[in-house]
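Take a protein:
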Amino acid sequence: MSWLPSPTRLIVLLKSIEKEENPLQDATELFWLFWMNSLSPEDFQDRVLFWINKHLEDSPKGGGFIDADVRDVILQGPERVAEIILARLNALCEMRRVPYIPDKISDPKSLYVSTLLESSRLIRLLRTERYSETTREVLDMALNALVRLGRAKIIGQDPQWPKEYSIFASAIGEFLYVCQFLIQKADGEYEKSIQSLAGGIASYIMTDVNISDFNQTKSRITEPALSAFMNRVTSCHRELSPLSIYDLDYQLPVDCFEALRKGERILDPKNIAAVCGLLAMVYSNSPTVDEDDNEVKDAEGENWNVIAFWHHASGLLEGRLQPSDLRELLNEREDSASEKRLRTYFFGDEAWNKLPERVRSSLVSADRDWFSGTVARKEAVFNELRIATEELLSTGLWKPVEQWIPNQKKGDNDTKWFTDRRHELSQNGSMPTLLDFERLCRLNITNAFLKERGTPGDKRDWFCKHLPKSLYHLRRARNRAEHESVDKWSRQDFGNFYDEFMGIGRPGILPELCRILLFQNR
């Protein structure tokens, strides 16, 4: 007998997944049953016997109250029911496992289902076999599918991917990485275990980020119980997991770090210092860290506040770093702080997540350079704003117009200019510049394109009349900054452009472009 969820619902879900009727939702609910409602062997046996008696009581009615396949399995008795369920789950894991093919992007939906199936299997193994070789193999397969799922979503940008399932994927990532942390800690692989904990923290943060994408009215989740569960996750997602970052005993990561500190050598002190700083930040920002119950002990038996301990641990390792490694670590922290500012004050999580990666990278660099203490670095702000603007207009305007324009009237000057310019850039292997976008924004075809996409008149007027002037001024300022001494530039000179494009004290050009170009179909 094994730890399994409610047998009747489990058999129905396995059957539905086998038939691929609604695999994303069914695999999610299957995992939910294992995660939230696994019965002890005794409870499982009692549940099967209840259904056998229920069937016998209602047998004159032909057993119409229960699915025929479920009835046939249930009537074989508790031991056989458990064997059949496990055999079907294992077979499904094998059948739905997605083989790795180099240079090919796998289907995100198939990877998602595979991750959920392997993770369901893992929960049972953790209860029955703890950290056995089979448990480790299944954990590796679940993590492999999860990592490939993340890459497939980013690279493929599948428009059919249901965003609500990203919440589950992130929460499952938290669970899987915490499991890996515990196993590696038990094996004495302390450095690896702390790195795994970083993966769990990242997944926890992504769960919070993805929650903003969930919209109950637009969700394709139709199972009422699962939909209610989804709402509970969005309001308090840490209820989801018996193995989450905040459900870990605070002492476990501390013991891991202390064992590592007392060991012979830390292979990657910069990375471990970064994880220590991350733990300090996460615990500091959490209302669930109880002020009266968060003491931990170091290897010498000294008591610490858990937040203070991780600040101390981070500083201890930073003091041992080479200057180049310390500088790199501090830059990474600056980048993290910049991204948080941009998300919070200018774009919001949903808009930020929609931005192309190159746009996000340039915006982080621009923000970091702007808040630095030297004018020399602020000179780079112009170039980063240029890159972000060009990439956003390329993704949201140039490429969509390329697809749209073949269906428009041929022969007018606007169409000819765009077609000729696109051909010229293609021949040279070049990308459109601010000058190209300045010209494109003024064309009548751009107004027609935006109108067809549902952009309101006032937004089109801003886009076609006012935006080109801002692009012109940015282009001129960037060219001047490249050829003039920074002594001729004041903070106010840089500040006017930064305020205008980011949106300080006024609507920002880049956030507005994001709303117009990347949310047009709403």
Q: What stands out?
A: Residues 236-242 have pLDDT under 50 and may be disordered. Residues 264 and 510 are 50 Å apart (CA to CA).
